[in-house]
Amino acid sequence: QEQLEETGGGMVQAGDSLKLSCVGFRGPFNTNAVAWFHQAPGNEREFVAGSTRSGGKTYYATSVKGRFTISRDDAKSTIYLQMNDLKPEDTGVYYCAQKLAETSDSWYPGLVDEYDYWGQGTQVTVSS
Description:
Blueprint lengths: L1 E6 L2 E4 L4 E6 L8 E8 L6 E6 L6 E3 L7 E6 L4 E6 L8 E11 L14 E3 L2 E6 L1
Parallel strand pairs: 1-10, 2-11
Antiparallel strand pairs: 1-3, 3-8, 4-5, 4-9, 5-6, 7-8, 9-10, 9-11
């Protein structure tokens, strides 16, 4: 079910940075797990980064570790994805997601089927 809204995508050069935002969360935002996923053309949706809850644990895909940072602003019920040192393989549509049920910090946020709400995605294109 789509109800979230991503913004911040665009066309950039390799090595540039972008910051994505996602709004539209429902329910107890500070206890919900949230995440970012990436879908390259012709590929399945893949996990990028996730947060189990506010102040909880964050997880990253190996390909983005050290370059991307997920953060959340409880006051604004907004999450962000800061993307630095972008590479052409980062090209694709980026989706944010929300899981309504509470999770523990040991819960891995990387599975698409675990999420209840999604956005429509924002396009990121990185040229070499």
